[in-house]
Amino acid sequence: MPFRIALSGLNAASADLKTTGNNIANAGTVGFKSSRTEFVDVFAVGYGSISKTAIGGGARLSSVTQQFSQGNIDFTDNSLDLATNGEGFFVVEDNGTRLLTRAGAFSVDRDGNVVNSSGHLLQMFDLSRDAAGNPTLDVNGDLRYETARTVDAQFATTVGAPQPTSQIQPTINLDSGTTGVDRTTVPFNAVDASTYTSSTSLTVYDSQGRPYPATQYYTKLAANPNEWETRLFVNGSEILPVSTAPNPATVNFTTSGLVDTAASTDGGQIVYTPTAINGAANLSITLDLSGGTQYGSPFAVTAMSQNGFSSGRLSGINVDAEGVVTARYTNGQSDVMGKVALANVANPQALAPQGDSVWAETFAAGDLLLGEAGNSTFGLIQAGALESSNVDVATSLVNLITAQRNFQANAEVISTADTVTQTIINIR
Q1: Residue 45: predicted pLDDT
Q2: Domains and CATH numbers, the chain
Q3: Helix (H) or strand (E) segment spanning residue 394
């Protein structure tokens, strides 16, 4: 009797219903990949393998395979929400176990680790460094990364160390048409604008990150129309250059208006050593005027830079399309931390689902291939976005109806077989 055949059909239809129901339940799950039930028929091979009269034994579930098609990219307001547009999985780690995921909803925990909602640690490629610990560059001048291994993505949430100012580099034009000042009769006075020609200011920092105003005064000397006296005041006090103290430094220009390094103090790169303030270390500041000019146009400062900064805390994180992770700090500094690692396998359908939208490696899936976004077959990373589930709800609802009809049809087979059996039993 066909009871067992119909029962196998019921089991198959039930598995199809469960799979379709699971797809529909996860239609809103970030990074979810829909599943498909695959069935095979069952034939009992008889003596001599004669198949002309063989009747099938029903159906059985062969496998439930996941479909790794691309889901839609939905944009968010969180810079650590990441989506892979193309092939590749994010690599996360759970207590030493490496896992793969397409769900890129990450955040920073209290220890500065980048984690998903399950606490799995995002993995990235660290910067390649030389023996002194400095980042190394490739032949194109780009940062190099250690792509053979991954490290936990982690950011320092504590106060970052400050950096004292060691160089001031203004790009200025000193007006060649201005009248020179006779220093033999007009002594310099910082509060009297008639004793100097032009001035400009910026902020410098000591070794403890404290800011101080630094003002540069420029005076055209009457004795030589191409010579300018330059003075530097830090925190209201004049700092004399090392090589000319107790006299101020001078910068000389050629007849074409460029700095004459041979005639200028320290070749136009004047070294000052301000006295330590409030217990900080002594500063050594180089005022680089080599890019200055003396043209027949008004005094102008087109650029002014210095390399010091105060301490700062982590204020934001950026991830570009190639996965380069940059941390921003409240002191205006930024620091490249590494590059988000992507991974792939030859047979993704053989990966073992672990729940929480992650998969584990298996032998059948093939060896894990680590790579960088945008290289080889790996897709690009979209920050501030999440990959939605690839479940097509309309298709799933049709599959649900089909599975229901299959279940009803197999139940009808059992009912019919029961009627036939009852008829045989009732034969007198």
Answers
A1: 62
A2: 3-69+389-425 (no CATH), 73-159+313-387 (no CATH), 167-306 (2.60.98.20)
A3: helix 393-425
